[in-house]
Amino acid sequence: MGVVEEAHNVKVIGSGKTTVVLGHGFGTDQSVWKHLVPYLIDDYRVVLYDNMGSGPTNPNYFDFERYATLEGYAYDLLAILEELQIDSCIYLGHSLSSMTGVVASIFRPDLFSKLILLSASPRFINSDEYYGGFEKEDIDQLCQAMESNYKSWIDGFAPLVIGGDMDSVAVQEFSRTLFNMRPDISLSVFRTIFMFDLRHFLSRVTVPCHIIQSSKDLAVPVAVSEYIHRNLGGKSIVEVISTEGHLPQLSAPEVTVPVLLRHISHNITIDHQLSQ
């Protein structure tokens, strides 16, 4: 195993000519895809990895300066593809990693046959002509809460993001992976995500994009998925699914997994409808 593979806990499973790479979002790790992976391994070569800073990675490898922008994560993704000698893949990214895929595809469009963007947002903070869902004051308050009592912050944040109560299995799972992150790293990643503005990148994306969004997501309003669709430089399609929460692959796999499988297996046709 190479240095990059080991650092990111890369796992390659399944069989098939087509490679599907799965990237997880903030506060989770590769285990967030546990409901999807069993349906992929018979037909695809599946690559799983952990973002640097997530619980299963070595916190000593986390470079606060490198990961202050999404380019750091994009370069990690490209390094993983290079070390595995992958020259083309379908990339499915959730939340933070959906935008990581966007940036990486601008650097190396040849490596991606399509991007599947789940719960994606290029900017979370509202501005005069854009509705991202949050005011800057909201983010500042969340950061202050993280700094003062990380465990207490998780107890409040996880149910809001998942869209359930603390008794929910999905909320408990998200709480577990959040708690596994070192608090200072978690705060740094949180700030990076909620302060970035990647809207200017969208027009440079030429790889086909499948945008999948929960109908009710505290972190990403449905209007954001439409904004991405309108501003991408290449072909794209939006599907809003009848799920609640920012991690539908974890909280509503029975609805989300079939949708993800359909977007993995079908490409966008000229009229922007899914081909059959």
UniProtKB/TrEMBL annotation:
<dbReference type="GO" id="GO:0016787">
    <property type="term" value="F:hydrolase activity"/>
</dbReference>
<feature type="domain" description="AB hydrolase-1">
    <location>
        <begin position="19"/>
        <end position="252"/>
    </location>
</feature>
<dbReference type="InterPro" id="IPR029058">
    <property type="entry name" value="AB_hydrolase_fold"/>
</dbReference>
<keyword id="KW-0378">Hydrolase</keyword>
<comment type="similarity">
    <text>Belongs to the AB hydrolase superfamily.</text>
</comment>
<dbReference type="Pfam" id="PF00561">
    <property type="entry name" value="Abhydrolase_1"/>
</dbReference>
<protein>
    <recommendedName>
        <fullName>AB hydrolase-1 domain-containing protein</fullName>
    </recommendedName>
</protein>
<dbReference type="InterPro" id="IPR000073">
    <property type="entry name" value="AB_hydrolase_1"/>
</dbReference>
